[in-house]
Amino acid sequence: MLNNSLITNNTPLFQYPQQNYTCDNCNKEFQQSNLYSTAKDKQELAQQPTYCPNCIEPTLIVPVPTNQKKTKSKPKKNTVAYYQCMSACCQQGISPKKISQVAQECKHNSLTILAERTQEIQKLNQAYQQIGVSYSLILDKRTAKLEKKNGKELAEIEKLKKEMARLAKLTLKKRGDKN
Fold it and tell me: How confident is the model at residue 71 (pLDDT cuts 50, 70, 90)?
């Protein structure tokens, strides 16, 4: 729920349907979704904070009457997203579909598909980071074991060196006694 300190004097929030925006509270990006703002009309939206449905308190919502005809809003053109979508679809194979059908789907869904691919990439990056952390923990444990083992071996080597030095002295003494 939205922190009341974000809204001054309990100013009511107005609902604006079918908007592309970033929520000022949770910083998530939304496309063609309802937005809530203290702005009293669409011209003020750029100057006022915007909130997603997940971040608002239902008691603060004031419906905004819409006296416009409902028209389909065209998605924003994103050439890069379109070509990335086409590339991804072609790599997956397009034998069951016609190329024109794939192109039409990419034209309408390119931003959604690009967002999905971005999320997949983020998930893979997180997985690789977790694998890296796991490997470093394993390496640290093995290093500690080897250091402990080597420490014991070094102590044994030092004992053997001392024993050899003592035996060498005894041998020299015995030779000196015979001479």
Answer: low
Q: Kindly list the domain boundaries of the chain, sorted by start residue.
A: 4-62, 79-140
Return the bridge partners of 35, or none.
16
Residue 76: pLDDT over 80: no
- Would you say the C-alpha torsion 56, 59, 62, 63 has a positive or negative sign? positive
| Cα–Cα distance list, 57 to 6, 29, 95, 162 (Å) | 12, 19, 49, 79
Band of pLDDT at residue 176, cut at 50, 70 and 90: low
For residues 108 and 129, the answer to whether their CB atoms sit within 8 Å is: no
- Measure Cα distances from 34 to 1, 21, 58, 169, 177 in Å: 16, 9, 13, 92, 105
pTM here? Answer: 0.33
State the residue for tokens 């970033």. 22
Cα-based angle 113, 95, 90 (whole degrees, multiple of 5):
40
List Cα–Cα distances, 179 to 101, 172, 173, 176, in angstroms.
Answer: 107, 11, 10, 5
**DSSP assignment, residue 72?**
P
